[in-house]
Write a structure and sequence with these properties.
This protein has ten helices and eight strands. The protein is globular, with a radius of gyration of 22 Å. β2, α3 and β3 form a beta-alpha-beta unit. Helices cover about 40% and strands about 15% of the residues. Strands 1, 2, 3, 4, 5, 6, 7 and 8 form an eight-stranded mixed sheet that branches. α2 packs parallel to α3 and α6 packs across α7. It binds adenosine monophosphate and manganese (II) ion (MN) (3 copies). One manganese (II) ion binds next to loops.
Length: about 325
């Protein structure tokens, strides 16, 4: 009889262990268990200033984010960290929690990707050197793009784009797009990219960005977390698709993925949330704000991350402002 009771107890114990295990697995996303804490604050960890292809000065950008209710904010200019000190100072002056960031251009196989470095040390020499090299290569690329546009009948596009780049060290396709719209060649940004600036189009020239593995290592070297920006926006390998990209990113040591961002349709937020959990990646959120005229959402208008996801800021002291304080 005692043996029967003991067996029964063992069976109960096994069942309970299994249920707990399944529950943990269900919420863990393969080792990425979320810490479910009620949130009251707004995080926005992706934005651009005039130091890259945004149109607002750093102080205007920070003031705008603050006025729209953002509590935890990051400036993430493309391949450039010159705005970070000023942005940090402005954020602190306005009582907004601050994260130093950068959006690093990279590639994996032949896919160009953007890796956000979040909470990086903005003085890290290795990251500075690598970004400097990327900016130099951008200049040569811009010249090649201009030559290619000239061959398609559009003269002097380099000078035209440069006039739209307040930081002449950072020329991007966005500056070409602004020039082509304002000079009347195209009616909209969408038209510029679909007619000229995308792979296979007359103004596009192939370019070698640094390998994604190196970009991740550089961000880690600067003490930051590497987050794959807007995963829904890439020209993916048709065979391996988004799963292949996220697997490669995870295997390369990537930490997180932008789940909620303006570049995605709301229906994609759940899809990328599920993929973050599948690959054990931390989740991030950002508007990718560039300008009032060009941005799809305003600061503060994106929905919060699902509580089933582990946020990229889960262990950052400055992110405490996002949470409801428990009285315990
Ligand atoms: P680049 O880093 O020089 O290749 O330029 C990429 C930038 O161009 C992105 O950060 C966006 O700001 C902008 N961009 C890329 N594709 C589009 C598009 N289809 N419509 C509008 N802007 C785009
Ligand atoms: Mn941009
Ligand atoms: Mn980007
Ligand atoms: Mn961006």
């Amino acid at each position: 009889m005692d043996q029967l009771v003991a067996n029964q107890q063992l069976w109960y114990a096994k069942c309970i262990t299994m249920i707990i295990g399944l529950t943990i697995d269900h919420f863990s996303g393969h080792g990425c268990a979320p810490i479910i804490r009620p949130m009251k604050g707004v995080a926005d960890l992706h934005s651009h200033s005039r130091y890259s292809d945004g149109t607002l000065a750093v102080s205007e950008l920070v003031t705008l984010a603050k006025s729209r209710g953002v509590n935890l904010f990051a400036l993430t200019d493309h391949d450039e960290m010159r705005g970070l000190e000023e942005a940090k100072r402005c954020a602190h002056e306005q009582g907004m929690a601050w994260v130093s960031g950068v959006e690093v251009s990279a590639q994996t196989n032949s896919t160009a990707v953007h890796v956000l470095g979040l909470r990086v040390d903005e003085h890290d020499a290795g990251l500075h050197d690598a970004l400097h090299k990327t900016r130099e290569k951008r200049k040569h690329r811009a010249q090649r793009m201009s030559d290619s546009l000239a061959a398609a009948g559009i003269a002097d596009a380099f000078q035209g784009a440069l006039a739209y780049a307040p930081n002449p060290d950072l020329i991007s396709r966005t500056h070409f797009a602004r020039h082509l719209v304002d000079s009347g060649v195209c009616g909209s940004f969408g038209e510029v990219f679909s007619r000229f600036l995308k792979p296979g189009k007359p103004g596009y020239t192939p370019h070698e960005w640094q390998p994604m593995t190196e970009a991740i290592a550089l961000i880690h070297g600067a003490g930051g977390r590497a987050v794959l920006a807007h995963p829904g926006r890439y020209e993916l390998d048709p065979y391996s698709g988004i799963d292949g990209l996220l697997r490669t990113f995870t295997d390369a040591g990537g930490d997180g993925v932008e789940v909620v961002c303006a570049a995605h349709h709301p229906s994609e937020w759940a899809q990328f949330g599920a993929l973050a959990r599948k690959y054990g990646l931390l989740a991030s959120i950002g508007s990718d704000f560039h300008s009032h005229a060009e941005s799809r959402v305003k600061f503060g208008d994106l929905p919060r991350l699902s509580p089933n996801l582990k946020p990229v800021w889960h262990d950052w002291p400055e992110a405490e402002c996002l949470y409801v304080k428990s009285n315990a």
